[in-house]
User: Fold this.
Amino acid sequence: MAESVDAPDIVGEDILWRRVDSNMLDKSTDGVESLQSWAYKDQHHELSVYLARETTVAAVLALGKPHQVVVALRVQVVRDLGYKVVRDPEPDNKAHCLIYPYPLKKEHRRRMADASVQAQNT
Amino acid sequence: MYARHARPAFDLDFKAKTQRRRPAPQWSEIRLLEEFSPWVLTCLRKIASFSELGEGWDSYGSARVQAPAVMAATRFISEIPLDRVPEASVSPVPGGGIGFHWRVADRDLEIEFLPNGTAEYLKSGGEKSEEGTLSNFADRNLWRWLAGEAT
Assistant:
């Protein structure tokens, strides 16, 4: 990643997708979803996301492991917490971005999780 | 030959001693775990299955779930007051840990076992949140908070 610039072409209403283990997403009997905050945790402190309008759920899942799902988060939620959305295109998916800097605060990861929903297949 | 009049005195004394020494009742009702808290068995099975995940299980290069985290999470389940604790969601945590999550009304409680087996918690409700380390799994304060009985 050359520069940590908050991408000017990505607006607050844009949606970010993140691939997570399906155990991290719980659905109650009345259909209410709750996501565990470690969905936004990364061992290497690089929080990968994908810009939804430039890819598909199937493409994001294809780069992952079995038993994963994709969750969606509005860009504005990330920016309101003080983070940038930095473009970081990968050879196999140009929609790849990073949430920067890495969110070290559990509370911030909890807020991102609270604002997330499961992405629908497109 | 015993003197007849001495016997009652001995009996009375004996009874008094046994009454003093008698411990608290040792009988208690036995209930099967799957009837009392069926989610616990599911949880334990999941925890065991997490130790089979390989390197990079999260697709972002995470280490596999570490043995100290598995052991600590299992011990946690065996020590928490099951009469107070609602059903948990459990999942592997990137980096090699294990996490438990509860949501009751607007309160979220997350307990994360780090790869080395230490436990950290985050409780959040509304605009307030608090985090710390957890050492006493039987402590009922967290569960009272989760149930909305304490602040």
Summary: Chain A is about 15% helix and 30% strand. The radius of gyration of chain A is 13 Å. Helices of chain A lie at 57-62, 75-80, 106-114. Residues 15-118 of chain A form a domain with the ADP-ribosylation fold fold (CATH 3.20.170).
